[in-house]
Specification:
By secondary structure, the protein is α/β, with parallel strands linked by helices. The protein has a single domain, classed as Rossmann fold, CATH 3.40.50. 55% of the residues lie in helices and 13% in strands. It contains ten helices and seven strands. Helix 5 links the parallel strand 5 and strand 6. The longest helix has 29 residues. Keywords: Oxidoreductase. This is Dehydrogenase. InterPro entries: NAD(P)-bd_dom_sf, Sc_DH/Rdtase_CS, SDR_fam. Belongs to the short-chain dehydrogenases/reductases (SDR) family.
Length: 268
């Protein structure tokens, strides 16, 4: 995928990783639709891109819904042209533990998983006709490993990785590129909110991430994501140590689970 001259949609672009990816894509020559529930945040993202000489528009839309996705795609088409790159970045941490009720699970499944499925359903048929397109699913190292203290987050990030794998296997020989981004700790409002949460289980989840490795800036994630799009690479690991952890997990699952229990115990 040649980013220069392309049209990209980035969800969850009001802050954090989404804002960084939108900015990096624009700097590489893409016209960007920055989407987020927080319209003020994406307007700031778009304004900063335009001030730097790029092309962008901010749109307040719910990327977890078919209607919101349609709004983002239509805006891109009207302002810049057909969508070439779609970055499904919007995500939530969800309720700690098992969650209090079914509404917790409905919310996190919609945002962290169904948003990816719905976006792909909206774009893949057109991309197949054109023989080109690139889908980026921003998951998490939790999708390869796990997330202590938050079942919903762990389950949906595993599912996001699985969906990205399926897309790549099914359509990779038909001109559609797929990248799956799996960072550990990134300095974003989402992580900071969990680290500073009042709920002790949520704080433990944040401590697990913070203690597992370096907390990096979102710009680093964005840089590697843009490079993966250009290179047509599937797995993006901003924390290289995740690959060793993943191999360790697969080589001896029982030992890995026992080790995670011990790690959880050290976090109280």
């Amino acid at each position: 995928m040649h980013i220069t001259g392309s049209v990209a949609v980035v969800t969850g672009a009001g802050s954090g990783i989404g804002r960084a990816i939108a900015t990096a894509l624009a700097a590489s020559g893409a016209s960007v639709v920055a989407g987020d529930l927080a319209a003020t945040g994406v307007e700031e993202t778009a304004a900063s891109i335009v001030d730097a000489g790029g092309a962008a528009v901010g749109v307040g839309a719910d990327a977890a819904t078919t209607e919101g996705i349609a709004t983002l795609i239509a805006c891109a088409r009207e302002r810049f042209g057909p969508v070439d790159v779609y970055v499904a970045n919007a995500g939530i941490m969800g309720a700690p533990g098992l969650g209090d009720d079914e509404a917790d699970w409905d919310a996190i499944i919609d945002v962290n998983l169904r948003a990816h499925v719905r976006a792909a359903k909206a774009l893949v048929p057109e991309w197949l006709q054109r023989g080109a397109g690139h889908f980026v699913g921003v998951a998490s190292a939790a999708g390869l490993l796990t997330q202590l203290g938050a079942a919903g987050y762990s389950v949906t990030k595993h599912a996001a990785v699985g969906f990205a794998e399926w897309l790549s296997i099914t359509y990779g020989d038909k001109g559609i590129g797929v990248s799956c981004v799996c960072p550990m700790g990134v300095d974003t409002p989402l992580l900071n909110d969990v680290i500073n949460a009042e709920d002790p289980t949520a704080r433990m989840a944040g401590a697990a991430v913070a203690g597992a490795g370096e907390i990096i800036g979102p710009d680093r994630v964005a840089e590697l994501t843009v490079q993966a799009i250009e290179d047509g690479r599937f797995l993006v690991l901003p924390h290289p140590a995740v690959l060793d952890m993943y191999r360790h997990k697969g080589s001896d699952y029982e030992r890995w689970i026992a080790g995670m229990r011990r790690y959880q115990g050290t976090l109280g």
